[in-house]
Design goal:
Elements (H helix, E strand, L loop, with lengths): L2 E6 L1 E2 L2 E2 L1 H17 L2 E7 L5 H5 L8 E5 L6 H15 L3 E4 L3 H14 L2 E6 L1 E5 L2 E8 L4 E5 L5 E5 L17 E4 L30 E5 L8 H12 L2 E4 L1 H5 L20 E5 L5 H7 L4 E6 L12 E4 L2 H17 L1
Parallel strand pairs: 1-4, 1-6, 4-5, 5-12, 6-11, 7-11, 13-14, 13-15, 15-16, 16-17
Antiparallel strand pairs: 2-3, 8-9, 9-10
Bound molecules: flavin-adenine dinucleotide (FAD).
């Protein structure tokens, strides 16, 4: 059977909105290539009514697998089995880190092509073609698939319809024996990321914080300065790894590449892996207490001093200037 299978993430009885967008995108595309659009939900307590409701977004069948939710490996096992048993041609994900991890696992398991950060999918000669912005979004790369394609959207690339009024979908349980390594990790806690909805790649002004902030609370002063300037907050990998700020805000080699009009780096040393993500900024201003910090080598303006004293004063000055 030719078809598209979409993974739908859920949490506390609600579906993730990016996943719902992917379900309706799959339904639209399936209509154009004469295929079926099915969805799969993985979890220990997925209610039948919740699963059925995916029909409203265009799924013509919903698989439910009883397995740990929110972890990548169990989902890889479930989706790989569904592909082996039903021969889906395309696997679609709404976006986000979990989708990247599942998609990478499936690509290896199924020997399929995978494209991440996809912003549009279209049909050409009866096949799906994925578009992905590259080189700081200045060009679009186009992916076609030899046999099977795994397509993972950029966050919010696929929009769920405002009113979903399709029929409810038939639900079928799928029994999957999980691989021994798939049950090794377990979910300890889950929470919402602060700032994950801010698109820092579009911001004209970025106030970035590093380990020099001292702790997670240090970011409050940066948020106030960003608020006063009408900008957004970014971070180094060191602070993201420490859990002080969300991964979505990380700039650098393993984070995002940005080129705002103003990049203000507070308490950031200027490691090469950070530099590559922000060196194209129009104006770089750095605050660092160490006059030998590498960041001063590529800053337009360097302020040597304690950020705890400078940042609040700067915020007050901006507010006063704006008020006046
Ligand atoms: C493969 C690989 C990939 C990586 N990818 C990334 C990436 O994508 N992005 C990234 O950022 N890093 C990345 N890194 C990590 C990178 O090498 C650095 O470790 C990291 O950028 C350092 O973060 P930082 O500047 O916040 O911390 P630090 O290097 O510890 O710098 C803190 C700075 O704060 C200053 N400071 C301290 N207190 C104050 C104060 N009160 N007032 C003013 N200044 C103060 C210090 O003088 C110091 O310069 C990667 C590393 C590897 C190996």
């Amino acid at each position: 059977m030719s078809g598209i299978l979409t993974y739908v993430l859920h949490y506390e009885g609600e579906f993730n909105k990016n996943s719902l967008g992917a379900v309706s995108e799959a339904a639209k595309l399936a209509g154009q290539i004469g295929a079926e659009a099915h969805a799969v939900v993985v979890g220990e307590n997925v209610s039948d009514d919740l699963a059925k409701s995916l029909g409203k977004y265009g799924a013509s069948k919903v698989w439910v697998a009883k397995a740990p939710e929110g972890l990548a490996q169990p989902v890889v096992d479930v989706m790989a089995k569904l592909v082996q048993d039903n021969g889906y041609d395309y696997l679609l994900f709404g976006g986000g880190l979990l989708g990247f991890e599942i998609g990478a696992g499936l690509a290896a398991r199924l020997n399929a092509g995978v494209t991440m950060e996809v912003t549009a999918v279209r049909v050409e000669d009866g096949e799906l073609v994925a578009e992905r912005p590259i080189l700081g979004d200045s060009s679009i790369s186009v992916s076609r698939y030899r046999e099977r394609g795994i397509i993972i959207g950029r966050l919010n690339a696929f929009e769920a319809p405002a009113s979903a009024d399709g029929a409810s979908a038939p639900v079928e349980d799928v029994q999957v024996e999980l691989s021994p390594w798939s049950t090794r990790a377990r979910m300890v806690t889950r929470g919402e990321q602060r700032g994950a909805d801010v698109n820092i790649e579009d911001a004209d002004i970025l106030i970035a914080g590093g380990r020099g902030l001292g702790n997670a609370e240090g970011f409050q002063a940066l948020e106030q300065l960003a608020g006063a300037l009408g900008g957004a907050v970014a971070a180094t990998r060191a602070v993201v790894d420490a859990g002080w700020y969300p991964y979505a805000a990380q700039i650098g080699q393993t984070g995002k590449t940005v080129a705002p009009k103003l990049y203000l780096a507070a308490g950031i040393s200027g490691a090469i892996q950070h530099k590559v993500g922000m060196q194209s900024s129009e104006h770089i201003v750095a605050i660092n207490k160490d006059s030998n910090a590498p960041i001063f080598e590529f800053s337009d303006l360097g302020i040597v001093g304690d950020l705890n004293k400078i940042v609040p004063k700067l915020t007050e000055a901006v507010k006063a200037r704006k008020g006046g």
